[in-house]
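Record 1 of the preview.
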Amino acid sequence: MSETTTAAPTAALRVAVIDGDSGFVQVLTKRLDRLGWEHRVLTGVVPVDRLVAMRLGALVIDLALLGQHAWEYLERVANELPALPIVVCTGQSTVAQRVRGLRLGADDWVTKPCHPEELIARIEAIARRRRQADGPDARERILAGEIEVRPDQFQAFAHGRSIDLTRREFELIALLSAAAGRVLEREEIYQRVWGYTMAHGDRSVDVFVRKLRSKLQLASPGWSYIHTHFGVGYRFAAERPGEEADAAVADGSGAPESPVHGAPGPGGTGAAGGDALPVGPGEVAAERRTTDPRADAASAAATARELRAFAP
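->
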């Protein structure tokens, strides 16, 4: 009985292979070349910051090559690059070793000898699950206001003209726009764009959001796209300046706190001095009621009766 397999098209990935088996690596890299995947072959431990700089889509590791530091290295890479798919491809191992590797952060474990096609299929499966977990198809174009984001071209457009974005800026707008109006926390943005856990006090997300906002403002001045949720993160939505304020009040996320009479506020110093705080019609009516002499007299009489009731 013959089998017919139809392979779905797979987006090209950038893969690093830490392996010293020259024969296996040669066969694997030829197959990766035919797929159009970029690849780097490494023959030993590579610092994590160098892996970050490679902007990898997957990492394949032969733990036997790393000796006594293999487990420690696997755990460090998995912890510092949580979004990076890791496949261990190594020689014969015990059940305990495989369980340990998976629990330390490997996404899959393949035992040599193995066919390169199986290894590639496992990498594709992990990458596919990651894309599905991230939400809508990352290759889908996104239209918002006057902006079009095209992940397939790694570009964003306004009025049909390309916006000059750096790679990191594009990854940022692609992530935010794909969230479909959901607020993304700074830590999540950093982890998914930079690829590792954000250090305490790191302001990289804010700096790049500011740069991206500036470019979007120049390209589409009539719209606001990236909205700050103070203390939380950022939300992407195409809104006119007036609509932005209305949306903030509607969901309560960006509405300013109601001014307290007698307390300092924007443009004034409170009742103790300076200009009075602006109040709305409802507040004016409330003020009029509380300053009505008849209401004050009635309140005073009620208070006096309560005091007499508790008098000895």
